[in-house]
Each structure stands twice: as C-alpha cells, then as structure tokens.
Amino acid sequence: MKITLKQYNGVATWRWNTETEDICGICRLEFDACCPQCLFPGETCPIVEGTCGHIFHKHCIEKWSNSDKNNKSCPMDRLPWTLVKKP
Ligand SMILES: [Zn+2]
Ligand SMILES: [Zn+2]
Ligand SMILES: [Zn+2]
C-alpha cells in the first residue's frame, strides 16, 4: 500500500502544535531560527504577536496577509489579525 503525503501550503490544517508556542504556526520553524525566507535569525527577521496571542515570524504573517487580503485573520484561529503594539 502506498501512502501519498499531501503538501500543505501555509493553511492551518495541522492541529498537533496548537499548544506549543515555540514554533511559528505558519512555517512551523522554531522562533530561535528565522523564517524560510531569511538566512539568519535576528533583527532582520523579527517575531510579531497578534492580539489573539499567537506569535509568528513577521515575514510569515505578512506573506499570509498578502495571500488573504480580503480576510485578514489569524491562520491559527481565524480571529481578526491585529498586531500587538509594543512600547
Ligand atoms: Zn514562520
Ligand atoms: Zn524572515
Ligand atoms: Zn490567533
């Protein structure tokens, strides 16, 4: 029997990491590392927090927002995505 794995493209269809906040819910890489677009973690690849409490790489949520312009929502819980403003 052959099992074919389907590739998920950024849509929150996985459920096993919802309790973990150490990884980005979009690219599923650790926050210690940078997003797939960047080579090095740090200031060039910041981490942002939404009012719903989810944390993502800035680049990841930007990419998500751009692909979903009419419905700017958190990919994890579909709540309206608003950045938490840090002092
Ligand atoms: Zn990410
Ligand atoms: Zn990045
Ligand atoms: Zn959320």
Automatic annotation (TrEMBL):
Q: Which UniProt keywords apply?
A: Cell cycle, Cell division, Metal-binding, Mitosis, Ubl conjugation pathway, Zinc, Zinc-finger
Task: Show the SUPFAM superfamilies listed in the entry.
Answer: RING/U-box (SSF57850)
Q: Does the keyword Zinc apply?
A: yes
- Which SMART domains has this protein been placed in? RING
- GO MF term list: cullin family protein binding; ubiquitin protein ligase activity; zinc ion binding
Which cellular component terms (GO) are annotated to the entry?
Answer: anaphase-promoting complex
Q: Which residues form the RING-type domain?
A: 35-78
One GO BP annotation here?
Answer: anaphase-promoting complex-dependent catabolic process
Q: Which PANTHER family match?
A: RING BOX (PTHR11210)
What name does the UniProt record give this protein?
Answer: Anaphase-promoting complex subunit 11
Protein's organism: Smittium simulii
